[in-house]
Amino acid sequence: MGSRRGLLQRLAAASGAVGLAGCSDLLGRRTAAPVADLGPNPRADDLPPRQHAWDETLPADSAGNPLAPRHYRVLLLDLGEDPTEAAAATIERAMRTIEGAYDYGPDGLLHMLAWGTTYFDRLGALGDSPIRRPRVISRTDDPDLLSFDAALVLASNVPSHLSAVEGAMFGTRSELGGESVDARLGEVFSVSAHRTGFLGEGLPADHATVEGIPDGIPGDAPMFTGFFSGRAGTQASEDRVTIPDGPGAGGTTMHLSHLEESLEGWWNLAESDRVSRMFSAEFSPEDLGELGQSMPFADAVREHAGDGAVGHWEKVRRAREGGEPLLLRRDFNTTDGQQAGVHFLSLQRDLADFEKTRDAMNGWWLREEHEDLKDRQNNGLLEFITVRSRANFYVPPREDRVFPDV
Fold first, then answer.
1. What was the pLDDT predicted at 7?
2. What is the dihedral of CA 95, 71, 256, 127, to 10 degrees?
3. How far apart are CA 77 and CA 192, in angstroms?
4. CA 183 – CA 173 distance, rounded (Å)
5. N or C, fewer C-beta in 10 Å, the chain?
6. Which pairs count as long-range contacts for 267-271, CB under 8 Å and 24+ apart, including other chains?
7. Residues 161-165: contacts with CB under 8 Å, at least 24 apart
8. Distance, CA of 177 to CA of 185 (rounded, Å)
9. Which structural domain, as residue segments, surrounds residue 91?
10. Domain CATH code at residue 113
11. 293 part of a folded domain
12. How far apart are the C-alpha atoms of 319 and 353, rounded to whole Å?
């Protein structure tokens, strides 16, 4: 990370260009972290240095796979106030209020404050940051390429916790988990958009009342497709997605896509065909019940393409380094817009890792060799999803979560 003074100098220089009056006053008053006057975080010893460190708090299933929180809310934020010393202190006090209100974990609350491409544009530092503007990375989608100042990611097994945090931070709620609310994120940010959703057995069936969802989704299905996708061996570790050095060290990058699902055709397939499309032709429905933390992989995707269709997993499985996945997925089902979908939230060391994985999912390298394999048809899940939007963010370590410098 660069020096805090370097950050404030850029903010001051940017003030004339983007209307951030007051930055020069901030520069004149601060030479260290803008929240130094608040003193150390009283919960620092109870919280991991990485904002994205959630895994140790998660329970596990009988096979040892982590069980993600069941309810999610992502608030996409725009700065409504100059990034002054007072604004920085307000953000930090508000985040400490959230941390003090609930235990850090899925039965309490997990959270991240991430910073987007608009914020780094304000600094004139997007090119030096760990992120860049989102791109179109498939031939079949025309997504909205979005940019925000920040995002507040919230997750809990208790859905009322998410509503309470939003009410306290952006409404008039005066207490949060027994903590008095004397600083609100809404004093500095405005909420530009929401992303909401859920993950876990029973929840997709409970929400099967919107467009794109046929009757009959099994009551134990954790996702609208019916399959569990959180096996430990298919996920990158938090260490793997952490930026080791240079700009953004100790943090990670975050990609957020909104995928719309059309599942009538999916659920009209025989169960064996759904398994083949999700995983590969190597698997039968009976095989899935015997899997533990990993998915075996025969690297037979080219042979399967010659037979007319390939699975999602066998394509994406090829995007690894040293045998390890590149992405830590924290995606979840959604009915935002009254349409079945997925908010695909992924963490990765570099956004190139996400793009590499999506490129493998596209299957173009197979499409050129096998005429039965189309950009969508017979090509894993692509026939059933449409990407509606993309946005990129940087998740700094906890100590640098307010107006991060790069």
1. 52
2. 10
3. 5
4. 11
5. N
6. 267/214, 267/216, 267/217, 267/226, 268/214
7. 161/102, 161/108, 161/109, 162/71, 162/72, 162/73, 162/109, 164/101, 165/73, 165/98, 165/101, 165/109, 165/111
8. 17
9. 4-211
10. 3.30.70.1030
11. no
12. 8
Distance CA 115, CA 391 (A): 11
Average pLDDT of the chain? 89
- Is it the case that residue 367 has pLDDT exceeding 90? no
- Look up residue 58 and give its two tokens: 């998660």
pTM comes to 0.91
Kindly provide the residue ranges of all beta strands, DSSP E only, lying in 271-373, ordered along the sequence: 320-321, 324-325, 328-329, 332-334, 341-348
Q: Which residue has the tokens 């998660």?
A: 58
| Spatial distance between the Cα atoms of 406 and 393, rounded to a whole number of angstroms | 13
The answer to whether the beta carbons of residues 165 and 154 sit under 8 Å apart is yes
Given a contact cutoff of 8 angstroms between Cβ atoms, the answer to whether 394 and 129 are in contact is: yes
- Which residues pair with residue 134 across a beta bridge? none
pLDDT by residue (tens digit) across 51-72? 999 999 999 999 999 999 999 9
> Which residues are registered as beta bridge partners of 257?
344, 390
Indicate the length of the chain as a whole number.
Answer: 406
Residue 323: inside a domain, yes or no?
no
Residue 265 falls inside a structural domain: no
Burial status of residue 365 (CB atoms within 10 A of its CB: 0-12, 13-18, 19 or more): middle
Q: How does pLDDT run across 321-341, given as a tens digit for each residue? A: 998 999 999 999 999 999 999
- The total number of structural domains in the chain stands at 1
Distance CA 242, CA 100 (A): 25
Residues 255-272 as b/e (b if ≥16 CB within 10 A, e otherwise) read bbbbbbbbbeebbeeeee
Question: How many Å apart are CA 225 and CA 318, to the nearest integer?
Answer: 22
β-sheet bridge partners, residue 397: 50
CA distance 335 to 74: 14
The DSSP secondary structure of 330-351, one letter per residue, reads: --EEE-GGGB-EEEEEEEESSH
- Give CA–CA dist 359/354, Å, rounded: 9
Strand partners, 345: 256
Q: Round to whole Å and give the CA distance between 374 and 370.
A: 8
Q: Kindly state whether residue 36 falls inside one of the protein's structural domains.
A: yes
- Spatial separation of the C-alpha atoms in residues 107 and 59, rounded to whole Å: 10
Nearest partner of 273 among 301, 234, 312, judged by Cα: 312
